[in-house]
Design goal:
Structural class: alpha/beta
Bound molecules: uridine-5'-diphosphate-glucose, manganese (II) ion
Number of helices: 36
Distance between the termini: 90 Å
Radius of gyration: 31 Å
Number of strands: 14
Length: 974
Amino acid sequence: MSKDRAVEDNANMGKLQISNTIFTGGFNTVTRMHVIKLDIEQSYTDVSDDEAKDQGLSLLSVADDSETKDSAGFGSEVKNDFQHQPNFGEKTRRPLTRKFSVSPTILIPYRLLSIIRILLLGFYLTWRVRHPNHESMWLWRISNTCELWFALSWLLEQLPRLCLINRATDISALKDRFESPNLQNPKGRSDLPGIDVFVTTADPEKEPPLVTANTILSILAVDYPVEKLACYLSDDAGSLLTFEALADTANFARIWVPFCRKHGIEPRNPEAYFKQKHDFLNNEVRLDLAGDWRRVKREYDEFKVRINSLPETIKRRSGSYNAKEELKANMNPSEMGENSSDEIKISKATWMFDGSYWPGTWEVSGEDDHSRGDHVGIIQVMLPSSDAKPVYGSNTNGKHLIDTTDVDIRLPMLVYMSREKRPGYDNNKKAGAMNALLRTSAIMSNGPFILNLDCDHYINNSLALREGMCFMLDKGGDRVCYVQFPQRFDGIDPDDLYANLNTLFLDVNMRALDGLQGPYYIGTCCIFRRIALYAFSPARVTEHHGLFGTRKTKLLLRKVTVSKKEDDEMASQINQCALDCDDDDDDADTRSLLLPKRFGNSTSLAASIKVMEFQGRLLQELESKGNQGCPTDSLTATQEPLDVATVAKAITVISCDYEDNTEWGKRVGWMYGYLTEDVLTGYQMHNRGWRSVYCITKHHAFRGTAPINLTDRLHQVLVWATGSVELFFSRNNSLFATRRMKFLQKVDYFNTSVYPFSSFFILVDCFLPAVSLFSGQFMVQSFVTLLTFNLVDSITLYLHAILENKWSGITITNRWREKQSVVMWGTSSYPAAVLQGLVKLIAGVNISYTLTPKPATPKDGDDEFADLYVVKWSFLMIPPITIMLVNTIAIAVGIARALYNPYPEWSKLIGGVSYSFWVLCHFHPFAKGLMGRRSRALNLFYVWSGLLSIIVLLLSIYIKSSSETQNHMKFLFP
Ligand SMILES: O=c1ccn([C@@H]2O[C@H](COP(=O)(O)OP(=O)(O)O[C@H]3O[C@H](CO)[C@@H](O)[C@H](O)[C@H]3O)[C@@H](O)[C@H]2O)c(=O)[nH]1
Ligand SMILES: [Mn+2]
């Protein structure tokens, strides 16, 4: 698109908005869109003049076309420098990743143990079934069913752990291949593909802006070619608070990012970095680190104060503007078109610092067009994209904080986005936000790869993106739809009371899946291949790559999409789109108007097609530039110029999906209609035949926060478990509906979808000992057999865990926490999830999403774990509390009955009491959470009641056995 055209389109914004209305099809309301013009100097003054000019908060900065072309089209240079190039062939052929299998010394005993356990379980269960307890058949039946179920679920869990693997990356090989001079790239410019980073935030109260700001800073400072990186923040609250916090973050990044690059800082999240202890005398650091550290720290502290006082700042500013407005209106009522002398009511608006209305949500709710679920779409480029050439800073001369003469001071693109929301239309929660980002970014930067982060998950290792790229760009990498990293956490209490670390899932199960078809997508810390999100199958993409750079891309799109039958509609539509591009290449507007007609009034389909179109056009462009032999995936050798016209067109695309909203999530992008979009979205990709990869390393690539408050944790587990139930009921998840998914992978997905249903058996098992104590009927013939079995069972389980520790690092304590949490959640969140899922299935009721509150950054001197002791009531606590009470009472009743009974059945009593105590042990963290700060007393209670019951029992056995010597043998082996 020529410059003139862009200018013309800029002037014709009004016209474009009209075409948007047509574009949204049958929807009546005119879709409006705000592209905000801001001048950062007004609010943030401590920036030098020349810096302020390129400060970025200008209207959707237009990148210089000629520059961009230069950076992309290095074809001509190739010819000139051809003879002078040494041979790099060998160097670039090194593999980027390696795969290890777990050592046989661990694997063989591990498998042996599995077999032993299966045999033991088999023997025990057959014995149980063959020997009914005639005393109490109902107890026998119930406990049998429970045990059969648990055995089965253990088997389901164990099966996928047969092929264990570990992986490693070679970052230096990546550098050699993509960033060293070679024949195609004599200057050694980075040939790494572009990455768009998506961050989502939804509520500045539950998700403190300072936390989000730190995440953004860690992204802006990541070690990746600046011109290939773009960062998008989606704000589902449409809040000015987030907006201004982001603007100030972009500002602070000018200090923070060069500082990180200069000294090789890790981690590049200022809050986490400044918390560390520093050794400035270390030989490996630069001499000026101490000075720079002090100056940057002071800047950060001021930044922190500014961000934390933003709510107050905005409130005060809006207050004074509103008062002024009111005054004005009352002075000249005629101007307001009011004839009466009544006092005029002015709506309490939220004001931006330049004295204009904030188009998003206003603090005072209830305002039409300005509430959480009812506002226009907002898009703002906070930092423009940059050129491929490094820009070096200058030395300290009063203006500049630190000396950056040899430091590249460019910053990646940064965009604020808040999608349009209207009452009566489902916004599809996080999935909706992600898809809006997917479409917006397709038009603005179109990185072939996408990193997805929650607002509280920052990049902890600045090489993380490169690590991910190793998998994507390695041989065979084109079958990888995403690279998932484990979720690691800061700020978890040392005891990890509520099993937040998730070790069993993150360190064992996910790794085991990597030996099959790949780990689940867990919603954050995940790098996607864009094309996999566009519902392509890997086979198709391989074909794509095979032809890439050698034939006509258009031809290729047509050929590829027609050759596969299953992606029917979408394929033919893309096909048509490619044809359209052919017809009238120069008239983009006519084309976008044609699309809705051809495909009905479907906004979302049209939007998805637009995205496809862009991808196609990009390929074409590369093609036409003669970019022959360009490495696969370096699609962004061309940086899409960011011009006003294209971005204005994105307006239609980022708006909420209106009536056709199901189309997007059904076919393209993040899946709609489920509480947890993540597992389902990954499931679809695996089902299409993609594989995913687990990138788990000792240094944690990403870190985030987890709820350490019992109530928050219960609600988080409720959301996850409901997602699983939804997966179970989803049409896709029939064991027979699988298309290209490996069998064991399918088994694991099935297991995931089924675990909340075990809540029924867990509940029963927790009440059984109490019921038997109350009724005086014990559930098995002999507690001795039960205990022996439990012992053997536990031993094999923990031997397993020890072996698992060898390759996953999971400890016995972790294991015990996991076991406790299965019982705790199994009696609270899981049954609630099953109920919610059933209600949705039967009545079609939409389930609401509970956003997990993120802990705020503690101020100096604050208790880091204060949240741990906050007790908030939740209905989910009712069953566990009941179980704890019932079992405690049952123990007392049982003992009392035995003591006052002339013929007490001691063996039954011991069985019942120890079983009840065993149940109570599983609820220890739960009880601690309920007691809050008084939990120390609780520990004493547990120890003493344990000891006491043992003493009482031993005493009574002693008394009993000495008085009835004949019966002695009987009670030991009844
Ligand atoms: O309407 C919404 C709801 C949520 N979010 C964002 O989604 C992310 C995750 O939400 P959170 O409540 O923190 O979920 P968690 O339980 O902490 O997160 C885990 O579980 C979720 C559901 O499976 C995944 O989406 C997350 O990525 C994963 O970290 C946050 O960044 C939110 O801002 C939105 O953008 N819009
Ligand atoms: Mn979270």
